[in-house]
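Anyone up for a design puzzle?
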């Protein structure tokens, strides 16, 4: 493989990994607070349609980014109200949220099918972006690629190095004790749910603004479920999450690369590779039950009702 082909593959891997990383970071924070939101797929697809629609209408992909995050957070509101205020089952509510997002996005995006979108421009840093091979890879990405890396560092720092992160983890590990110490468990979980929704929306917006600047119904294609698996795969650690997201992004691109080489492998098998790897990773994790139980937030998915 020559240098230009290798660069093209690496750039595509970065593009494929970014929406997974954004969505998974949001879910990681949500689960660290003890809330299991299975509606990531629905929030991502709503972010995708909202980002595309606003960018196309206004001509500004940056307004599309804001709209994508807002759409994801807005769809997280009914989930938060049902599970945190009305103490509904988190698994059932999350699944309903995914179905709602898929149906609503299809309805909203019907008029945008087939229309060319507004692509999010890649940044150009004079001098650095022009360096052969290294320049386009590290200094020629769009703003959301850099934002995803910055967010991963910030989430890691906040969760493990600040008082706010300590409270977040306390709420996720023992909500009764956190409540006894005077912390508002419901308020902390609300903020985590909204943050997770906003990042899921950003991940979806990246798909329709940068990955493939167009709107196609169900264009998330299961990436929300992969993001959920990534959180478990990373043991709820942001540093491992970055590695996992780029690993899964590479697996996603592997299918297209193999097809380009003309290898006689069915296209359907290659397109299913990310999901096969996801299932395999979860099977491996399930065999290490003791380790998985130690890493998992102790109150994950458990409802909380204040006793006073």
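Challenge accepted. My sequence:
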């Amino acid at each position: 493989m020559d240098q230009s082909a290798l660069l093209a593959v690496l750039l595509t891997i970065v593009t494929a990994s970014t929406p997974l990383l954004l969505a998974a970071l949001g879910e990681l924070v949500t689960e660290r607070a003890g809330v299991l939101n299975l509606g990531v797929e629905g929030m991502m697809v709503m972010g995708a349609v909202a980002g595309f629609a606003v960018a196309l209408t206004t001509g500004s992909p940056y307004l599309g980014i804001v709209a994508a995050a807002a759409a994801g957070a807005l769809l997280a509101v009914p989930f938060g109200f049902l599970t945190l205020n009305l103490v509904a089952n988190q698994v059932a509510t999350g699944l309903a949220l995914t179905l709602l997002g898929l149906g609503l996005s299809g309805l909203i995006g019907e008029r945008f099918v087939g229309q060319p979108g507004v692509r999010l421009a890649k940044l150009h840093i004079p001098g650095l972006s022009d360096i052969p091979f290294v320049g386009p890879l590290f200094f020629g990405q769009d703003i959301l690629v850099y934002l995803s890396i910055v967010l991963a560092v910030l989430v890691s720092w906040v969760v493990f190095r600040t008082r706010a992160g300590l409270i977040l983890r306390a709420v996720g590990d023992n909500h009764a004790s956190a409540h006894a110490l005077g912390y508002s468990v419901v308020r902390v979980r609300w903020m985590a749910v909204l943050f997770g929704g906003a990042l899921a929306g950003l991940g979806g917006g990246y798909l329709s603004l940068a990955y493939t600047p167009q709107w196609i119904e169900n264009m998330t294609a299961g990436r929300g479920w992969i993001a959920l698996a990534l959180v478990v795969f990373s043991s709820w650690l942001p540093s491992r999450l970055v590695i996992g997201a780029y690993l899964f992004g590479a697996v996603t691109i592997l299918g297209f690369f193999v097809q380009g080489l003309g290898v006689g492998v069915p296209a359907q098998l290659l397109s299913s590779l990310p999901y096969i790897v996801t299932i395999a990773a979860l099977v491996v994790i399930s065999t290490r039950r003791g380790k998985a139980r130690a890493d998992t937030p102790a109150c994950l998915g458990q409802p909380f009702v204040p006793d006073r």
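A detail worth pointing out: The mean pLDDT is 89.
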